[in-house]
Write a structure and sequence with these properties.
With about 775 residues, this protein is of the alpha+beta class. It is built from 25 helices and 29 strands.
């Protein structure tokens, strides 16, 4: 066969195939949803009281509500026809004049200038989900002819106005009118209708919220098209073009946007329908208050290079999710506001430490155990690193309670070195941290310091388990949703001990000072965390009623200007907790059976001895109470000669640590008393236990004034142990009287930069006695 004949047969065959396809399309039935007119029905997400959060048409990627043509403003109908297809009533689905014009423009410009699609063709594209490609045009035209044969012009207009996207997740004129102008489509003015009619061509480009200038220029183009068609006269044109438009705030139309987006992404797992009303667990009033709080806190920290925050609130009674705020402003494109900070993976810093300590309590440790806070190096997959505390100091031997409450890094790393990273990683995964997918060797000992990335939602869920006696439950997001299977991650006794420590103001004050952000007027267990280089900071905690998680930082990963968990997320956490409990304070935490209390030496964690300078009450799991008496505090008598005639004896008490701790103290640089004098007994001295002793602060302590925290909240609690029979004492600072107080002999002093000397004086039967001076430095 010759080449010309072959070309002829191919051309005829191609034409025949196209003809058969066109015939098949014409005789095929209409899509069922088009015939039933239900495609515009939307899924309505409401809060727990039934208040609308968002409305979405899942099949079209937006939300909508079906309306008849008579329920749409005539202005919108006229504007849509004028700008999209002014010969709509003269053609049968395809406009030959428009096709020829488009072809001529394409040939002249050597590119596609206009698509020449009629309203019917656009409807066909929406119904059959056709791509905007040249090769789909023949199919689009055939389907348009089919729709014209099956539907009247009014029905086509009705379908079009209910199916076309208008941007910002809306589908259909009714949803668009309510989003942008907070009114039904029937009540649109000419100016409003002209603006809406211009959006479907490029909803993102003409979005009035983000590009008002482009939307106004498009509106004017629509009005000119109406003027040319005779739909309006020049006076109406001028009036509409000059009219000022008042838009409904975008926030009102997209309530709880991060939560709703997350819900729809997980629609199949949650078995959400494509249409209907679904009542969620969100409390819209609380959600909106939290959004305002986040915005205001981010503004306050703007000079510290903070651009975003996120927060989660769970109801402890059934792990119900009450609020999820994923960013400070969902509509802030510059700072990636549509990123959900509740789900993003970030390094949680010290907020992981309670799970390390919980593991230790499970394996025989007690809250009274002494841990080393000395110079330490830890290994990770990336190499060894020097472990240091937030205050850049080492504190020698510290009780486990104090180590956790003050969030010291060194004791936590030493503890994990003993327990093993694999054990902690297993515990964290059991606690719901599914994001920790790497092997234990990848994280190393840095796992307890939060070098593994987790989400705020995971962290809040895990703390909710501590609040619920060690029972982990996945959060409920839908009312009536059956609770997921629960699992136990800690015993009730261990969970309570962690709660007791995290709520212990006295144990925390050594690192955070008086009046810090975690001090609330009701019982609250809380923990802060700051990741490396101040890229993220966190505050997570709970009362008996609610669990709250807060993150503050930048989605870009840029570091903040030395904003810590206590000065950043901690302040926001405090405000949220006060908001949640504004009507009534929560009940106190209740200890489960199987716990006991004992009085112990505050320094050694053992039963108090005769020379212990201070005691505290400690909580123990039954059977783990200390049995030995403190051997750390030992007497040392110093004899003073007085002008060669007689003398006097002064009793001093030194800490003599067992050999196990001696190496810690040497590493930490703690001075030791002379060996020859250790263990000497007082020789009939009447000064035995008759001298006041300042127990807080410690000699040599260094404090730093927080530049963000209000000055009146930055105070020290001055504490002392006094001889028996003392009624009142006087506190002296830098040789000036601060105050006179009665039992329990505590005073508060506001931090002032510089070096300071403290003494406490008391009048006894032997006269006025004074404590040894204690010197501190305030930066």
């Amino acid at each position: 066969m010759s080449r010309p004949k072959l070309k002829s047969w191919v051309a005829r065959g191609g034409a025949g195939v196209l003809a058969l396809m066109a015939l098949a399309l014409l005789v095929s039935p209409l899509p069922r949803d088009l015939a039933e007119r239900k495609s515009g029905s939307s899924l309505r997400l409401t809060d727990r009281q039934g208040r609308l959060l968002q409305e979405r048409v899942l099949g079209s990627g937006g939300r909508g509500q079906w309306v008849e043509l008579r329920e749409v403003s005539p202005y919108l109908v006229q504007a849509t026809i004028a700008v999209e297809d002014h010969r709509f009533f003269q053609h049968w689905g395809v406009d030959p004049l428009a096709v020829m014009r488009a072809a001529r423009q394409a040939l002249g410009a050597r590119r596609v200038v206009s698509g020449a699609s009629t309203l019917t063709q656009q409807l066909a594209r929406a119904v059959y989900h056709l791509p905007r490609r040249w090769w789909a045009k023949p199919v689009e035209m055939a389907l348009a002819l089919k729709l014209e044969l099956a539907l009247s012009k009014e029905e086509i207009l009705t379908q079009y106005l209910n199916r076309v996207p208008y941007g910002n997740g809306t589908v259909g004129a009714e949803a668009a009118a309510r989003l942008y102008f907070a009114k039904p489509a029937l009540h649109l003015s000419l100016a409003e209708a002209a603006l809406l009619a211009g959006l479907p061509q490029a909803p993102a480009r003409y979005d009035p919220y983000r590009n008002y200038g482009a939307a106004k220029r498009r509106q004017e183009l629509v009005l000119r098209a109406m003027l040319r068609c005779g739909a309006i006269d020049s006076a109406r044109f001028a009036e509409a073009r000059a009219a000022e438009l008042t838009f409904s705030p975008a926030e009102r139309s997209l309530a709880a946007p991060h939560f709703c987006d997350w819900l729809l992404v997980n629609r199949k797992a949650l078995h959400l329908p494509e249409a209907g009303t679904v009542r969620t667990t969100i409390d819209l009033s609380l959600q909106q208050k939290l959004e305002l709080l986040l915005r205001s806190h981010v503004r306050l920290l703007a000079d510290k290079n903070v651009t975003n925050a996120a927060a989660v609130v769970l109801d402890n009674r059934d792990a119900t999710l009450l609020a999820m705020v994923g960013s400070a402003d969902y509509f802030d494109e510059l700072n990636h506001g549509q990123v959900n900070g509740c789900l993003s993976l970030r390094q949680p810093g010290s907020t992981i430490k309670p799970f390390t300590y919980g593991l230790a309590l499970e394996h025989g440790h007690t809250a009274a155990d002494i841990l080393p806070d000395i110079e330490t190096h830890a290994a990770t997959a990336g190499g060894d690193f020097r472990v240091h505390n937030y205050d850049r100091l080492f504190h020698g031997p510290v009780r486990l309670r104090v180590a956790l409450a003050c969030s010291y890094n060194v004791p936590a790393v030493r503890l994990l070195e003993e327990l093993g990273t694999e054990l902690l990683l297993t515990k964290l995964r059991a606690a719901g941290f599914a994001s920790l997918t790497k092997p234990a060797t990848y994280y190393g000992l840095g796992l307890t310091l939060g070098n593994g990335e987790v989400s705020l939602l995971e962290l809040t869920r895990a703390y909710c388990a501590l609040a619920c006696g060690g029972i982990l439950r996945r959060e409920k997001v839908l009312l009536g949703q059956q609770g997921a299977d629960s699992s136990r991650i800690f015993s009730p006794q261990v969970a309570y001990l962690l709660t007791h420590i995290l709520a212990d103001r006295e144990a925390r004050v050594g690192a955070f000072g008086e009046g810090n952000a975690l001090e609330l007027p009701f019982p609250c267990a809380a923990k802060t965390g700051t990741s490396k280089d101040y890229r993220d900071n966190w505050a997570v905690g709970y009362t008996t009623r609610y669990t709250v998680g807060v993150w503050v930082g930048n989605f870009s990963g840029e570091a903040m200007h030395k904003v810590s968990g206590i000065t950043g997320a901690g302040l926001l956490f405090r405000d949220i907790m006060l908001l949640l409990h504004r009507e009534s304070w929560p009940e106190p935490f209740v200890a489960p059976p199987g716990l006991t209390e004992r009085e112990i030496c505050a320094r050694s964690g053992e039963l108090p001895g005769p020379y212990c300078r201070g005691t505290v009450r400690e909580v123990f799991i039954a059977g783990t109470e200390p049995t030995r008496t403190c051997a750390v505090h030992q007497p040392f008598v110093v004899h003073h000669q007085e002008n060669g005639a007689g003398g006097r004896a002064e009793l001093r008490v030194y800490e003599v640590w067992p050999a196990l701790y001696e190496s810690w103290l040497v590493e930490a640089g703690v001075p030791r008393p002379p060996r020859a004098s250790l263990g000497q007994k007082p020789e009939g001295s009447s000064l035995d236990r008759q001298l006041p002793v300042i127990t807080f602060p410690d000699n040599g302590d260094i404090y730093k004034i927080d530049p963000v925290l209000r000055p009146e909240y930055q105070t020290l609690s001055l504490e002392a142990v006094l001889p028996q029979g003392v009624k009142t004492v006087s506190w002296w600072v830098n040789d000036s009287l601060l105050c006179t107080v009665a039992h329990p002999f505590r005073a508060r002093w506001r931090l002032v930069p510089g070096r300071h000397c403290f003494q406490v004086k008391a009048e006894t039967e032997h006269g006025v006695v004074a404590s040894r001076p204690v010197h501190i430095l305030v930066l």
